[in-house]
Amino acid sequence: MRWILFLLALGTGFAHALDYHLQPRQIADGVWLLEGSTDNFAAENGGNIVNIGFIETADGVVVIDTGPSRRYGEALRQSIEQTTGKPVLRVLLTHHHPDHVLGNQAFAGVPIAALPETTRLLAEQGDAMAENMYRLVGDWMRGTEVVLPTEEVQEGTLEIGGTRLQLLALRGHTGADLAILDERTGVLFAGDILFYQRALTTPNSPGLDVWLADLDRLEAMPWKQIVPGHGPVTTDAAPFVQMRDYLGWLDGLLRQGAEQGAEMNELIRAPIPERFAQVNLSRYELIRSVSHLYPRYERNAMGRVDRQD
Amino acid sequence: MDWRSLILLALFAWAWEARAAAPDPVTSVMWDYYHQRLLNGEAFVFDDKVRLEVPPFAEDARQVPIQIDASAYRGKVKRILAWAELNPIPRILDFAPGEHLEPSLAIRIRVEQATPIRAAVLTDDGVWHIGSARVEAAGGGCTAPSVVRAEAGWEERLGQVLGKRFERGEDSRLRLQVSHPMDNGLVGGIPEFYIEQAELRDADGQVLGRIELFPAVSENPTLTLDLRGDQQTELWLRDNNGNEFQAAF
Ligand SMILES: [Zn+2]
Fold first, then answer.
1. Superkingdom, according to UniProt (chain A) (predicted)?
2. Which positions in chain B touch A256 (Cβ < 8 Å)?
3. Do residues A266 and A223 lie in contact, with contact meaning Cβ atoms separated by under 8 Å?
4. A21-235 in CATH: which number?
5. Distance of CA B135 to CAs A49, B52, B81, Å?
6. Quick one: which of A151, A168, A175, A259 is 20 to 30 A from B244 by CA?
7. What ipTM was reported for this prediction?
8. Which CATH number among 3.30.70.20, 2.60.40.2470, 3.50.50.60, 3.30.70.2740 corresponds to the domain B44-248?
9. Where are the domains of chain A?
């Protein structure tokens, strides 16, 4: 009996520990941020490695991304209602990656909007990504299921509750990446087109050249403050500077590697420049990016050598 | 020296040898099995001079790059075997580098789960030198649906070879990728269909090196060989259905 009580105590203690402790931070008039860590998915963080935001309008709230799990989404919705006292009008998803969309379940009854290609990618890859999240963060994910967007958005201006948002349809990170600028405050939600102080991820990238071109379009927006998908908020262009530098280095490493006949195992051990010492997880993400991207660079560097007769 | 001293000396020597023999660096429960099955129980030593590079984890379990470098035994290597110990299809390759090839090679493989990988290098004194590594993996690389077969027109591309020669000082690195599904018989009822033999030959048809391949090798196999010198080479490949392919570098 004592054993059972002990196990029960352990069990409830553990369940109690699974709390994201979300503390929305106001970063501009009517704009709040929930800033995640710059670590990798782990049981210790419940997958809370991502920046989630919300914007208060006259009629209600616009939510930007829903987080890594059902549990996160529910805590998010609760903290939005506590903070603003207003209902959620609309969810906007920046892209289909699991840390940004697996909180969708908590927004039942609210229109969830995304680029059409984001919906297609989530339908195609969502279950496998959710399964992987269960493997990486465990119990935090309990009850989490993929919920697809219910509305489409396109590039252009979107007005919700009297608040004007400028939407930009980009491609560099996943092939469908939505960036959102709140016109009134100049807060730019860049999604994962910007990683700052955290190494960028490439599993769905159509190419680093595409991503670099996106940075020019995004930087030209009239922003005053930047919320990257991962990493700290800034009021200067530092995330753009770091992203260009990092993407340029990665592209050069892979291109030169392919031109000189480097093997994947040689590239994943390549030195990482000292100036990226502040960029968390750069070695880990280099190993992943070599796997994602190097085959394309290799094929471009090689030619047909088979006897064609 | 009396008999007691001799026994003591023998015991000491035995203990010394037991201590000197390096332990298995990846402590695999499967080692004894593969030692018997693939190396016929012959003399071996775990040897970090045989460099076996793998990524710490498999980002894509269908394409895990492995790189073997036994150049510490240049001129003495007769064969190199490689296998993945916990794979349903463990064997990767059996490579006999001739005197014009470095005893080194890189290739990509499929892994079904986290596994120790071995490169066993037979030197001319009859000893197997075992390079070891371990790759973490979420898994499923051997049973994932074919990427090649999902591409339209793959049959027309069968046996096409992309390749390039890279000058490296006096020597040349040869890299190539062959269009082939490398079906391993574990997916969707598709029988085994894979490239099983490769030979690198010089312009006169002399064999510079031979490789036997197994279906642990990834789809569209990639291969890197290091050639001593800069002579022209030809690559000859044959799959288990008897298709032959040739390429020239
Ligand atoms: Zn992302």
1. Bacteria
2. none
3. no
4. 3.60.15.10
5. 26, 11, 18
6. A259
7. 0.90
8. 2.60.40.2470
9. 21-235
